[in-house]
Design a protein that fits this description.
Number of helices: 3
Mean pLDDT: 90
Structural class: alpha+beta
Low-confidence stretches: none
Strand order of the largest sheet: 1-2
Largest sheet: 2 strands, antiparallel
Strand content: 15-25%
Helix content: 55-70%
Length: about 70
């Protein structure tokens, strides 16, 4: 049972890493002027007026929608 659990955890971690890469790539494509970088389990966004854009652009507020 422990092997099954370890295998499931490994598959989940791999799927999460793929999703992070896909989201970071889509951010660059869909949001000009905003750069993204993967830092461990986080996606870090940088760009000019990012806080203002966070309020005005729904895509930044619902960043998980880029995982589709």
């Amino acid at each position: 049972m422990a092997r099954l659990h370890a295998r499931a955890m490994g598959l989940g971690a791999k799927a999460a890493a793929i999703a992070r890469e896909r989201i970071a790539e889509r951010i660059g494509d869909d949001l000009p002027g905003i750069a993204s970088a993967i830092d461990g389990e986080r996606i870090v966004l940088t760009g000019r007026r990012l806080r203002v854009r966070l309020l005005s652009e729904p895509l930044l507020r619902w960043i998980g929608s880029l995982a589709r």
